[in-house]
Amino acid sequence: MLKRLRAELSTEAGAPDPRQRQYTTAVLLAVVAATLVGRLSDIGEPLIIAGMTAVLTLISSGGHSLRADLRMFARFAPAITVVLAVGPLLTNAPVLAGALVAAVVFGSGMLPALGERYRTFGQTFAAATLLATTTGIGAGEPAWMLATAAVLGALLALLLRVLVGLTDPSRTIRATVARTLTTPGPGVVESAADAWRADGRVGWLGQVLAGAARFRAAREVLLAQAQQSHGEQREWLYRIAARADEIAAELAVAVRSRVCTGLNGLARTRPEVLEGAANRQVPDAVRGINEGFDRVRRAVLQRDQAAATPAERGGRRQQAVGAMRAHLSLRSSLFQHALRCTLAVTVGMVIVLLLRDPSASTLLLSLYVVLQPAARDSMNGALERTGGAVLGVIVLAVVIVLVPYATLLIPVFIAAMLLRVERLRNDYRVLLGALIAITVLARIVELDERSLVNATISFAANTAIGAAVALSVGFVSYLVLPGSLVPDVRGTVRATVWSVSELLRSVRAVGRGADLKAPLRAAHVLALRRTQDLLGLPAKLDGSDTVEEEAERSSRDAAVALDALRQDLATLAFRPDSERALAVPALSAVDDLLGGNTTARIPDIPSGQAPATELLAGSLLENALHARAAIDETFGYNDPWKSYTISFVRPERLRIR
Question: Which residue range(s) make up the domain with 461?
C-alpha cells in the first residue's frame, strides 16, 4: 500500500512529483479544515454538498490539458453547482423534484450521442441530481448556505485543477497522445485525437498522432500478413511487430517528457534491422511502420507549436444535429434505453415519496447502479451489481454499528474521492457506490431514535427495492421494446457494416468533388443509429442461453471498431476539401476490407501536409482491420482473411423516419 502511494506521488523516472504532492496536500488540508468547521459550527450537510460539488465538477470537467479543462469547467461546472444548490430545496415540492429527475435522467441517457465528454458529463450530472433531490442531504438548510457551499466546492475544484496543471499545462494531453504508441485496439486514436482538438490542435502533437496512426495501421497490416503466412516467415513477421512495439514504447517516453533533447539508440533504430533483414524482402507494412516512426521522431525533436488547420465551420453543429436526428426515434437503442432509465427512476421516485423514510435515500442511487445510463453497460452483470450494492450497504451499516463516531468517515470518503477522480471518471459504478456510502453515513444521524440494527435492515431493504425496480423495468422493457427479444447478431453486424460502408462511399465521393450533402447527412444519421444498436447488442446477449460467449465478444469487438470507424468518417467529412482528397486512397482500401477483400495493403497517403487528416486516414485503416477480424469471427470463418462478400441488402431506405 505504501509502495503504491509512493509510486503515485512520483514521476515516471521515480523522482518526487511536486504537482501530485501539492494536489494531495491541498486536498488533505481542505478536508481537514472543512471537518473542523463542520464539527464546531454544526453545518455538516452543507459541507458535504461543497465536497460533492468539488468531486463531481472535477470528474465532469477534467481529463484533458489545463486549457481544455478550463473550457469544460466554464461549460459544465455551473450546471452541477446549480443542481447541488437547488436540489435539496425541492424536498417540499415532490412533483417538481420528480419532473427534474426524470428530465435529467432522460437527457443524460441521450448525451452519449454527442461524444465521450458529454457522456461523462451526463452521467455525472445525473448522479448530482439524484444526490441533491432524493437523498435529503441539505434539505433543512437555508438556500443561501447551500448556494455558498456549492460555489465554494466549485472554486475548490478549480483551484485543485489549476494547482496540478499550472507548471505543466500539457502534461495530460502528452500522456494521452503517447498512449497511441503503446495501447493497441480500436478507438485509442479517436479519443486521443478528440483530446488533441479540445486542447487547441498544437502542431507537434498532431504530427505525433499522424505518425502513430500510420504506425498502428501498418502494424495491423503486418499482423494480418503474418496470419496469412506460414512457418519461419510467419515467426519473423511477428518478431518484427514485437520489435516495433519496443521502439514505440521508447518513443512514447519521449512524447510524454516535457522537453526532449535527443533519442536513445533503440528509439532511433528500425525493427527489421533488429531482427536481421538480410536476404529477406521487407514487406510494405514494415516500411509503413518506419514512416510512422520517422514522423514521430521529427515531431518529438522539433516540437512545432503552430496550430493545425481547423475543421470547416459548422461541422460540430451539423454532427450534433445529425446525432439528434439519429437518436430521437424509437428505432434508436439509445432512445430506448433513455426511456427505460426514465421509467425506472420515475417508479423509484414514487416509491420514495410513498415511504417518506430517511432510509429510502439510497433507493434511487442503487437503482441507477443497476440500470446504468449507457445501454451497452446496463444489463451486463446486473445481478452482480445488485448483490454488490446490497452487500455494500450492509457492510457499511455494520461498520456504523461497531465504530463510534462513524460519521467522521464522510470526510475520509470525500478525500478518497478527490484523490481518485480519474478512477471515478472511468468507472461509474464506483462513483455511485461512493455516493451511496456517503448518503448512508449522512442520513444515519437522523435515525438515532431507532436501533442501528433496524436502520441497517431498513437501508439494505430499500437498496434492494431500488435494485429490484431496475431489474424489473429493465427485463420488461427488453421484452416489450422492438428488437430486444431475440437479438440477431449477424443481421445487426451486417446492417452496421452496410451503413458504415454507405457513409464511407459518400465521404469518398465528396472527397472526389461530388456534391452529396444531403445523402452524406442521411448516411451519417443511419450509421450513428446502426453503430449504437451494435454497441447495445452485447447487453442483450449477456446471459442468453442461445448465444455463445464468442458471439458476444466478437459482436462487442465489431461494435467498438465500427463505431470508431464511423467517428473517423464523420470527422473527415468536415475537413477542408483540399485535405479530404488526401484520404481517398485510405477510403478505397477500407471499402475493400469491409467488402471481404483478402488483401490488406498500405494506401499511398502523402505525408507532411495535413496531420489532422493524415491521422484520420491511418486510423481508418486500423479500425477497418480490427472490424474485419471481428466480422470474420462473428460470421464463423475459422480461417482468418477468408474471401467473402457481405450481402448488403438495404435494411431500410436511406431516409430518416
Answer: 10-167+329-480
